Amino acid sequence: MGSIADLLGYTLNAEGEKSDISPETGGAINEAGEASSPKTEHAREVTMDAILEFVDLAPEDARGDLTLKKDLDIDTLVRYAIVARIEHELKLSIRDTEVDAWETLDDVLSGVAGHV
């Protein structure tokens, strides 16, 4: 499995920084517009693995603009199962209000990355 950047259609240069080229798939963008740290990249990989465990989605079809409810059919129970796995693996806690505000795959990836 490639990196999350690969899955979302981003091209990284040799130094690990994202290129200026927009992703072809409309995927997630690092909130700060900078390259991800190894910790952030790990958090995104754990998050994506957790989502893929509970959702019928091929990794190559993952895009940041996919909605959790409509596109991925993630209901409240599945959402919190995903969050529980993420919290357990990354040893962190995410507020329910934040989880409830997530609407897209990008929201989840960015939200979790913001906790590491």
Keywords:
mainly alpha; 0% strand; globular; single chain; Non-ribosomal Peptide Synthetase Peptidyl Carrier Protein, Chain A; 116 residues
Any overview of this molecule?
It contains five helices and no strands. The protein has a single domain (4-113), classed as Orthogonal Bundle (Non-ribosomal Peptide Synthetase Peptidyl Carrier Protein, Chain A), CATH 1.10.1200. It has 116 residues and is mainly alpha-helical. The longest helix has 17 residues, at 38-54. α2 (38-54) packs antiparallel against α3 and α2 (38-54) packs across α5. The chain has helices spanning 4-7, 38-54, 76-90, 96-101, 105-113. The two termini are 22 Å apart. The chain is globular and about 30 Å long.
What's the SSE blueprint?
Layout lengths: L3 H4 L30 H17 L21 H15 L5 H6 L3 H9 L3
Strand composition percent = under 5%
Order of helices and strands: HHHHH
Q: How far apart are the first and last residues' alpha carbons, in Å?
A: 22 Å
Q: What is the molecular shape?
A: globular
Number of helices: 5
Alpha-carbon Rg, integer: 13 Å
- Structural category is mainly alpha
Total domains? 1
CATH superfamily, by name, is: ACP-like
Major sheet size, sense and barrel closure: none
- Text of the CATH class: Mainly Alpha
Fold-level CATH name? Non-ribosomal Peptide Synthetase Peptidyl Carrier Protein, Chain A
Q: Which CATH architecture is right?
A: Orthogonal Bundle
